[in-house]
Amino acid sequence: MSHFRPYGMALWGLGGLFRGKNE
């Protein structure tokens, strides 16, 4: 867990936002 990819985190955050909007 030492290598954190900002790209992956951005995608994860966007997915959460989209899910929240759908709900």
Which descriptors would you attach to this protein?
single chain, 23 residues, mainly alpha, 1 helix, 0% strand
Characterise this structure.
With 23 residues, the protein is an all-alpha fold. The longest helix is centred in the middle third of the chain and has 17 residues, at 6-22. 74% of the residues lie in helices and 0% in strands. It has one helix and no strands.
In short:
This protein is an all-alpha fold. It contains 1 helix and no strands.
Helix content: over 70%
* Mean pLDDT, all residues: 80
State the separation between the terminal residues, measured CA to CA: 31 Å
Rg from alpha-carbon coordinates: 11 Å
Range of strand content: under 5%
The main pleated sheet reads as: none
Secondary-structure element series: H
Structural class: mainly alpha
Count, helices: 1
Total beta-strand segments: 0
**Overall form:** rod-shaped
Quaternary form: single chain
Low-confidence segments: none
Task: Furnish the topology, listing elements before pairings.
Layout: H1 6-22
